[in-house]
Amino acid sequence: MEYISTRGSAPALDFEGVTLAGLASDGGLYLPREWPRLSNADIRELRGLSYHQLAARIMRPFIGTSLSDDELEEMCADVYGDFGHAAVTPLVQLNETHWLLELFHGPTLAFKDVALQMLGRLFETFLARRDQKMMIVGATSGDTGSAAINAVAGRDNVEIVMLHPKGRVSDVQRRQMTTVRSANVFNLAIDGSFDDAQAHVKRMFRDDDVTSILKLGAVNSINWARLLAQVVYYFYSALQLGAPDRKIAYSVPTGNFGDVFAGYVAAQMGLPIERLIVATNVNDILHRALSDGDYSAAGVTATITPSMDIQVSSNFERLLFDCGERDGTALGDQMREFEKSKAMQLTNAQREGASSLFVSMRADQDETSRALAWAYGAAGQVIDPHTGVGLHASIAASEADLIARDVPIVTLATAHPAKFRDAVERAVGVRPSLPARVGDLFGREEHFAEVSGDYEATRDFVLENATR
Fold this sequence. Notes:
By secondary structure, the protein is of the alpha/beta class. The protein has helices at 15-21, 40-44, 51-63, 69-80, 112-130, 143-152, 171-178, 194-205, 208-211, 224-240, 258-268, 285-292, 316-323, 328-341, 348-355, 365-379, 385-399, 421-428, 455-465, and strands at 3-5, 30-32, 91-93, 98-102, 134-139, 158-165, 185-190, 216-217, 248-253, 273-280, 294-296, 343-345, 358-362, 409-413, 449-451.
């Protein structure tokens, strides 16, 4: 399997290469040169597999010779054998139409664990093979940071600096990052938004003063290997609901477009997905882009769904490339112009390609809270606000007849409700408790540094703290 950049000029790499590279050298994101396809008969043969067995089967064609069958199967068994639910990502039925796919049974109670536990193992394996050291630099709007830190803390040959926007993540999200005591973990609170933090990370990968000294790695969903691991739970849930002999729709609360793009990958592989509903909060650049072609960033509004308080959705570039005739040169020009002006219009080909599978919905905070109340009152389910955005979109799409009535709609439940206790309590009158496996989170001492919103402050911190 060979991978190419969305911007057309970076060298093609194999799976090991793209895992360690993260961002392409031309500023683009890596995608497979072509999508592997499964027939309906192939998909039927996947029925009855355990989660880790299915993960190995789905990921196999993307990995090529970078891992042997035995190495991949052993890695999947180890990674997914330590989740808080035997099914890893269990389905919960709300009513005859709506389902929840619980993705929060990993060590940090968020969907990011499903991918980042695997990515941590891949880093360790590939770095040991090359006898290399890596400095991971990442940005988080809440959940990526704790999941990435948990995945690599104490591992050989790898260090991690994680940026989070000061005061814009929940107390549980922050503490899950800042209470980890490991010599290879560094936390930075920056004075700015997630978009500012993400821009610093991308700029660092293009900064010769950094890359000439350090080998940088990425854990955000710009890293293809992380996104690949998320494809698995679309197959896992769809198989339980009758695929490939029945179509399934998914509603995905999203900010950076990675989780929903994983659903797009599943569809390209042959999974019969009726629709992917892109669910945004009031930071609705993706909704505007998919509705009327306007991909223009505005100011970031702080909400009760901080992981979605994003205006620049990195993975959207992958969709634009795949729907825009895979013209890397043209997309490179388009994205560079967007990076300057923070505004662009999608081409007709990009809009038409996206509309064949995607619809979008926007939820404000009142609508999000009402979705939490509906889940609790109608089905006895306490859900987090991000999941509430997805559930609002799921119900709204169903009521607008955007989804056929005989098609089940699965909302991705992306975080445990206890990560957002205050918002949940205001909506449903119940204050969710942290699971026992999290331990004494609020009894641990926090450790993090604060820096200004200037790129130079972040760069200098990384260079000063990295092990050469």
